[in-house]
Design brief:
By secondary structure, the chain is an alpha+beta fold. Helices cover about 35% and strands about 30% of the residues. The protein contains six helices and seven strands; from the N terminus they run αβαααβββαβαββ. Strands 1-2-3-4-5-7-6 form a seven-stranded mixed beta sheet, with helices on both faces.
Length: about 180
């Protein structure tokens, strides 16, 4: 009986030490056929927060070509990772290298039904780790100035404000430590 109590104590202590970073779900490579609709729905639902110029951004092109924009040199360069839980798309992160040592996170999106469970942090951590592993020395992103919740998460991950690229947006950057 004492041994069982000790094991349970260790389990709870381990879970407590993991704290808010614990969440269920697996991060996988984007699969166009499986993930397209879920990503499009996420982007459309939160278009104000995620897309600077929704009138000119082509979601379908991005997914079909894995490109952040229509610049030919970036064709196929966009990494898209999806987080799935019980076979449902929870969210996704999309990122790419601008130049060999400078990288950009284009999107980080979690479906509203799954927010508050640290899925966004899990996706962000995956992107940052992958970008630094592949040689980036700096990662940047752009967030709406009034998106205080997202800015707090990014700052918790070591991002610092770098400049305001245009009215209503803030650029954040993080260097490899």
């Amino acid at each position: 009986m004492q041994k069982d109590s000790y094991i349970i104590f260790i389990l709870f202590a381990t879970l407590a030490s993991i704290g808010n970073s614990f969440c269920i779900g697996t991060i996988e490579e984007f699969n166009y056929k499986r993930d397209r609709t879920g990503i499009i729905n996420n982007l459309r639902e939160d278009i104000y927060w995620l897309i600077e110029t929704p009138e000119t951004f082509d979601i379908e092109y991005m997914l079909r070509t894995k490109s952040p924009n229509k610049i030919p040199a970036l064709y196929g360069k966009l990494n898209i990772k999806v987080l799935r839980d019980n076979n449902q798309l929870v969210g996704f992160v999309a990122y790419y290298k601008l130049i060999p040592d400078l990288c950009h996170i284009l999107f980080l999106s979690v479906n509203k039904a799954f927010r508050g469970k640290n899925y966004g942090k899990k996706l962000l951590n995956c992107a940052i780790h992958d970008l630094f592993r592949t040689g980036c020395s700096s990662v940047n992103l752009i967030v709406r100035t009034n998106n205080t919740r997202a800015k707090k998460i990014y700052k918790d991950f070591g991002f610092k404000e770098s400049h305001q690229p245009k009215q209503g947006f803030t650029a954040l950057a993080r260097s490899k430590q």
